């Protein structure tokens, strides 16, 4: 454990911050807390150091290729690569019920398209048996999408990046042209965020199928967590929500690959369009949380 190197994106607050804390507590040798904003990132690291933990900080803007390349070069030169990548960086739109094009485009760029920049520069330096966790959401389950054409394309066994890109382009074009149809979606609140996370989960299945070196890639719903993103609404604390991502990073069997993992470590069939996962059930969350305390 002490020889492992872990990277958490978007980690100056919220779930990312909590994951860094838990990885440090578990004895991972080097844990990088990364953030777009240098001051906020360093402040977060100093806060953890006051708790006796020793994360490293490195600036990282997942949407800027030169930033990702610079960090990848640092990891390669200093460590020869790394073992754990938790893609947590994400944003949500400010307008809850209304989908605005520029806002939707920005959400897609950060939450989905940035993963291709990460893949280009950081996947080549992942070590043998490395683990990648793409943080998604229950809002990223395929049951959020009701358009049968796109559901069929995204859930096919041999789904490709082109299928997902076409889906994202269709969504953004519909927003831009004012042709969105409510019946194409289960819920239209936070629609840009939902569709970005649907794309993330679909991409996870593609990445898992094509990666080598026995690398395990999974997507994750961390639970309905009290963070700034949820405006402090939720059933779980940040500390509670970090148990499962760290389980995927350190504890689960290496054969667990290409799955959609729930906050309680259970596997859910992401391709099941009839699975009712749109809202986290409060009773089941509280039952799980009771096991952690």
Mind sketching the topology for me?
Blueprint: E1 5-8, H1 14-25, E2 30-35, H2 38-49, E3 56-59, H3 65-79, E4 82-87, H4 101-122, E5 126-135, H5 148-155, H6 161-177, H7 191-210, E6 216-220, H8 238-241, H9 243-250, E7 260-261, E8 267-268, H10 282-292
Parallel strand pairs: 1-2, 1-4, 2-3, 4-5, 5-6, 6-7
Antiparallel strand pairs: 7-8
Helix pairs in contact: 3-4, 4-6, 4-7, 6-7
Spatial gap, N to C terminus: 25 Å
What is the 3D shape?
Answer: globular
Count of individual helical segments = 10
Largest sheet: 8 strands, mixed
Task: Kindly give the count of domains.
Answer: 1
Strand line-up in the sheet with most strands: 3-2-1-4-5-6-7-8
- As an assembly, this protein is single chain
Calculate Rg over CA atoms.
18 Å
CATH structural fold name:
Rossmann fold
Order of helices and strands: EHEHEHEHEHHHEHHEEH
Percent in helix = 40-55%
Q: For this structure, what is the CATH class?
A: Alpha Beta
> CATH superfamily membership, which one?
NAD(P)-binding Rossmann-like Domain
Give the helix/strand class: alpha/beta
Spans with pLDDT under 50 lasting ≥5 residues?
A: 278-293
Proper CATH architecture: 3-Layer(aba) Sandwich
Mean pLDDT: 92
- How many beta-strand runs? 8
Query: How much of the sequence is in beta strands?
Result: 5-15%
């Amino acid at each position: 454990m002490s020889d492992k190197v872990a990277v958490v994106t978007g980690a100056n607050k919220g779930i990312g911050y909590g994951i860094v804390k838990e990885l440090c507590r578990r004895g991972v040798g080097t844990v990088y807390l990364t953030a777009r904003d240098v001051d906020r990132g360093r402040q977060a690291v100093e806060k953890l150091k006051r708790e006796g933990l020793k994360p490293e900080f490195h600036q990282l803007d997942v949407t800027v290729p030169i930033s990702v390349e610079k960090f990848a070069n640092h990891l390669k030169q200093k460590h020869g690569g790394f073992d754990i990548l938790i893609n947590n960086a994400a944003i949500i739109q400010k307008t809850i019920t209304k989908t605005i094009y520029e806002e939707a485009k920005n959400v897609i760029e950060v939450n989905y398209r940035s993963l291709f920049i990460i893949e280009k520069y950081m996947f080549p330096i992942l070590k043998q048996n490395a683990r990648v966790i793409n943080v998604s959401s229950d809002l990223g389950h395929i049951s959020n999408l009701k358009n049968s054409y796109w559901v069929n394309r995204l859930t096919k066994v041999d789904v490709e990046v082109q299928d997902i890109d076409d889906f994202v382009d269709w969504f953004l074009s519909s927003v831009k042209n004012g042709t969105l149809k409510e019946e194409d979606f289960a819920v239209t609140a936070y629609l840009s965020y939902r569709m970005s996370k649907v794309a993330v989960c679909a991409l996870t299945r593609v990445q898992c199928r094509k990666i080598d070196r026995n690398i395990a890639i999974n997507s994750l719903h961390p639970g309905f967590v009290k963070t700034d993103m949820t405006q402090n609404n939720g059933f779980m604390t940040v500390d509670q929500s970090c148990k499962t991502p760290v389980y995927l990073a350190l504890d689960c069997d290496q054969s667990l690959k290409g799955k959609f993992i729930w906050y309680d470590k259970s596997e859910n069939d992401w391709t099941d369009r009839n699975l009712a996962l749109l809202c986290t059930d409060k009773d089941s969350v509280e039952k799980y949380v009771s096991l952690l305390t």
